[in-house]
Amino acid sequence: MASYKIAVLPGDGIGPEVMAAALKVLDAVGEIEKVRFEYEYAQVGGCAIDETGYPLSEETLELCKRSDAVLLGAVGGPKWESLPQDRKPEQALLKLRSGLGLYSNLRPAVVFPALADASSLREEIVSGVDVMVVRELTGGIYFGSPKGADENKGWNTMVYERHEVERIARVAFKLAQKRGGRLTSVDKANVLDVSQFWRDIVIEVHKDYPDVELDHMYVDNAAMQLVRTPKQFDVIVTGNMFGDILSDIASMVTGSLGMLPSASMGEKYALYEPVHGSAPDIAGEKKANPLAMIMSVSMMLSYTLDLPHAGAAVQQAVSEVLEAGYRTGEIFQEGDKLVNTDEMGDQVIKRLHQIKNEEPA
What we know:
Elements: E1 2-11, H1 15-33, E2 35-41, H2 46-52, H3 58-65, E3 69-74, H4 91-100, E4 104-110, H5 123-126, E5 130-136, E6 148-149, E7 154-155, H6 162-178, E8 182-187, H7 193-206, E9 213-218, H8 219-228, E10 235-238, H9 240-254, E11 261-265, E12 270-274, H10 291-303, H11 308-323, E13 326-327, E14 337-338, H12 341-358
Parallel strand pairs: 1-2, 1-3, 3-12, 5-10, 8-9, 8-10, 13-14
Antiparallel strand pairs: 4-5, 4-11, 6-7, 11-12
Helix pairs in contact: 1-10, 1-12, 6-7, 8-9, 10-11, 11-12
């Protein structure tokens, strides 16, 4: 029986709740696919600060390195907001990304047919949306030097090197080849020298992917277009800060942050997490939507563990649960079936077994 080692970092707030539901789904996948998942848990974020004084320990980073994949719940909360910048829970994310070399962040924004009316945009605008945002994750303004602050000013530096732009562009072009064949590179080349550099390198890399249609868009226009006509996009590639913002905009096109998974990948390691935050206001109440965490598991199965059939089955199960009308509170509307975090996970597991039973012998 094949066996996979998974580093499990539940984190803060609703992280442990959505993680528990997702691991139950993963256990069901293991039962169906006849594979074994071995979990090793560690603290990350605020809970790690409370325990060790640091948001991410070297021991936890080493655990991630000796695992086949990493699952992360969420980090942060008001309890730790007053800490110095270099000691805040979110620093764990930056350290994980740099320590594991996770330069590529994939954030799919898909509107499930059953949720087309849940978006704040009109149904005819969002129905059929399927966008993949590819965010460069280990460069740009979040990592550039110099940076700092004094009594009179604060400063950060946006820096990109050629190899950083080339490798993220290649990831995006290859994804576009497998999807709709269209790539939009987002920058601010009309104002920023670093963005013009980004654009020039993407154009160079495009020569190796002539079957992909490439266009360029300024980030302010891209933000507007994502809300105005989101179906015009197939794959979007952009830098660290712009990707952070645009992927959240794309998430609200789908109707809920609780529905968006993500994958962060490098040459050797991969980490999977929901896009949503720790939602401390509902932590411990079993109100959180676990579907983004569950779909992050689906991405892990497909991209890292080479179990695409199982990953597709999880996606299908989620879609069927939504079609059946099951909703957690943030996407609940009159006439839906209101369920809690655990119950939503149980419904996905139920559908997984039904999908397996329906397969031809």
